[in-house]
Write a structure and sequence with these properties.
The complex is a heterodimer.
Chain A: E1 21-26, E2 38-44, E3 47-54, H1 62-66, H2 75-80, H3 87-102, H4 108-136, H5 141-161, E4 170-171, E5 174-175, H6 183-206, H7 209-215, H8 223-228, H9 234-238, H10 245-248, H11 274-297, E6 317-324, E7 329-336, E8 344-348, H12 350-355, H13 358-362, H14 367-377, H15 381-385
Antiparallel strand pairs in A: 1-2, 2-3, 4-5, 6-7, 7-8
Chain B: H1 3-14, E1 18-22, E2 30-33, H2 38-47, E3 55-63, E4 67-75, E5 82-90, E6 95-97, H3 106-117, E7 120-122, E8 150-151, E9 154-155
Parallel strand pairs in B: 2-5, 6-7
Antiparallel strand pairs in B: 1-2, 3-4, 4-5, 8-9
The chains are: A alpha+beta, B alpha/beta.
């Protein structure tokens, strides 16, 4: 955080003007809060003294709904609607938790397809994150480039399961469909084309002088604070913590592929600043492409519905499953009783947890920098409020 | 470190305060601990050299019908091991020591548990509703919760 000295303002006759703190409400309808988030900002001039987030505008009682389902599979369309820009990841997280509870082993082909979908979804989500973050910082063009390419990913998803945003594709024990025959070819095509855009936008946005000036040394999140606030995903890695659930708490077959965990190094300023968080997302897309290309090349054969249970009635108990989503650790805690209805499901939403650190990293920043900080946290309010 | 070793360390430190432990044949091994000791246990698990549970993955309230419970999922960034702690309180007096001072992330998780289950977190610095409106009555994730007919003059179940 930059300590900005607040100097007393004097009139030409030498009288010192009093300053007063004031409260400014940012949101709930504000373009840079990325949804319906209201921030109660206490300002001293233009310096942020305190940020009090108010959530719940998009609360849809997800957890209560789950307790009234007649099957575990019925929960999946609901988890889609939590983080609506990364629905595949949500499904993946939920089925990982449910399969842990039910002790289901899925065929290798299912693992591979899930990995391809999860990584495509990570790219699609990061494209929105970086694109909208660019808009927050005054760069409109990258947003258009990225949305054009995100559309290609949505087309791949549409081809697979018929839906563009909310898929209901990954099921407990398998998938709803196998991938269509032309999927492999189209995905390869996408990977080749997309690399050009990635490089282009990387030069255009992330190494742009104005962008660096706006983001370097802003909203610094130190390593200890990040861990104490249980930040995860690019938030945590941007602060220099070399931790990725895909590698460090393997939940599927990521260890079969060669890829690297991207960590912020403070290239443009301090480790853990807004620029670092953004560049982690940018570089992660390259790693996702590497994983997709390897998975596509070695995709095994098999029946994707082989392990799908006809009726789900778990042994009473509980399980916590977590995956590395685009925003970080997405976990589901499922408590089961001897019934076909889940007894309790708690979603550990990464955006919810990451957002809780905002007050700690915004103090002393300028109001305009607060916009950069919100953008760099990459919140999706559907997930924060559930 | 295995769940058994973690349990042994906690057992030698807290003795009878460890009420129950299930370490095998469950998806996640858990240790049930006395409610009064949870903050002490949190501080110990975080600061002890062998455990170093510095990362609170999740904190979830559960209504077990007649009693309420909280589940703490802990992880250690240093040792890369995990454990689950559980506590239980009677529904009538759901007082739980807050672990906010140990893991800051518990702040919002505990606010959520207060909001949806009606726990009272002792020494929580900012116990307000987080997801529901401030003037909402009741705690919806309790199993005996009745949806109110009206909220501010609006009919609730349409």
């Amino acid at each position: 955080m930059i300590e900005t000295p607040i100097q007393a303002i004097k009139t030409s006759t030498g009288r010192i003007l009093r300053t007063e703190e004031m409260v400014v409400n940012m949101g709930p309808q504000h373009p840079s809060t990325h949804g319906v988030l209201r921030l109660e900002v206490v300002l001293d001039g233009e310096i942020v003294v305190d940020v009090i987030p108010h959530l719940g505008y998009l609360h849809r009682c997800f957890e209560k709904h789950c307790e009234h389902m007649t099957s575990y599979q019925q929960v999946i369309p609901y988890v889609d609607r939590m983080d609506y820009v990364a629905a595949m990841t949500n499904e993946h997280a939920f089925v990982v938790a449910a399969e842990k509870l039910l002790k289901i082993e899925v065929p290798e082909r299912v693992h591979y397809i899930r990995i391809i979908m999860a990584e495509l979804q990570r790219i699609a989500s990061h494209l929105i994150a970086i694109g909208t973050f660019g808009i927050d910082m005054g760069a409109f063009t990258p947003f258009l480039y990225y949305f054009r390419d995100r559309e290609k990913i949505l087309e791949l998803f549409e081809m697979t399961c018929g839906a563009r945003l909310l898929y209901n594709y990954i099921w407990i024990g398998g998938l709803s469909h196998d991938i269509p025959p032309q999927f492999v070819e189209k995905t390869k095509e996408f990977c080749t084309d997309f690399k050009k855009t990635l490089k282009e936008v990387n030069d255009l946005l992330n190494y742009n002088e104005i962008f660096i000036k706006r983001t370097a040394n802003v909203g610094i999140l130190p390593k200890d604070l990040a861990i104490n606030y249980a930040c995860s995903g690019p938030m945590l890695r941007g602060s220099g913590v070399d931790f990725d659930l895909r590698r460090d708490d393997p939940y599927t077959l990521y260890n079969k592929f060669e890829w690297d965990v991207i960590v912020g190094k403070g290239e443009m300023g301090t480790v853990g600043d807004v620029w670092d968080r953004n560049i982690v997302r940018q570089r992660e897309m390259w790693e996702s492409l590497r994983i997709i290309e390897q998975a596509i090349a070695t995709l095994p054969e098999g029946d994707v519905q082989k392990a799908v249970p006809k009726r789900i009635r778990p042994v009473p108990g509980d399980a916590y499953g977590r995956v590395e989503g685009p925003r970080g650790e997405l976990g589901f805690y499922i408590v089961a009783e001897d019934s076909v209805t889940p007894y309790r499901i708690k979603a550990r939403a990464p955006a919810f947890v990451n957002l809780s650190v905002i007050n700690a990293i915004s103090k002393g920043a300028m109001l305009a920098d607060l916009v950069a900080i919100i953008g760099s946290i990459d919140i999706v309010l559907g997930e924060v409020d559930r | 470190m295995t769940a058994q070793e973690i349990h042994d360390i906690l057992k030698s430190q807290f003795g009878d305060a460890i009420l129950e432990a299930k370490l095998e044949n469950v998806p996640d091994p858990f240790i049930k601990i006395q409610t009064e000791k949870i903050k002490e246990a949190a501080e110990f698990t975080k600061s002890d050299e062998r455990l170093q549970f510095d990362y609170l993955m999740c904190l979830s309230g559960v209504d077990y019908k007649g009693k309420l419970g909280i589940t703490y999922h802990l992880y250690s960034m240093t040792h890369r091991h995990k454990i689950v702690l559980k506590i239980e309180v009677p529904t009538e007096t759901p007082n739980v020591p807050s672990v906010e001072s140990v893991w800051k992330t518990a702040n919002w998780h505990e606010r959520e548990a207060f909001d949806l289950f009606g726990f009272n977190f002792i020494d929580h610095p900012d116990q307000r509703r987080i997801l529901l409106p401030d003037d909402w009555e009741g705690h919806p994730l309790r199993k005996d919760y009745q949806t109110p007919e009206f909220y501010n003059g609006m009919k609730v179940p349409y």
